[in-house]
Design a protein that fits this description.
Layout (H helix, E strand, L loop, with lengths): L4 E3 L7 E3 L3 E2 L12 H13 L4 E3 L8 H9 L8 E3 L8 H6 L2
Parallel strand pairs: 3-4, 4-5
Antiparallel strand pairs: 1-2
Helix pairs in contact: 1-2
């Protein structure tokens, strides 16, 4: 199965899959998808044609981005990463990430 690609913006020249994957639960300590399960999910999405991934440094205390980095090795040029900035970890969240 290949997902259709759609233009991203009017002039960017970029295209992204019609379906993206939100990665807020990757690596989450609150019942999310972790470790090898997360990598399998990401690789399956890539193989299914997903090229749009939504993440942020605060998801899973940064684990979402680490997992995406591992899954995208050698395939980074073929995807669009959407991220957010400005949220800060609380002291408890920082401690939980260690």
């Amino acid at each position: 199965m290949t997902l259709p690609l759609l233009p991203l913006g009017h002039r960017s020249g970029l295209q992204a899959s019609a379906i993206g994957l939100g990665c807020s639960r990757l690596g989450s300590t609150l019942g999310g998808c972790t470790g090898d399960d997360a990598l399998r999910l990401l690789r399956h999405a890539l193989d299914a044609g997903v090229t749009l991934f939504d993440t942020a440094n605060i998801y899973g205390q940064g684990e979402s981005e680490r997992l995406l980095g591992a899954a995208l090795q050698g395939r980074r040029d073929g995807v669009i990463l959407v991220t957010k900035a400005g949220q800060r970890f609380t002291p408890a969240q920082r401690a939980a990430s260690w």
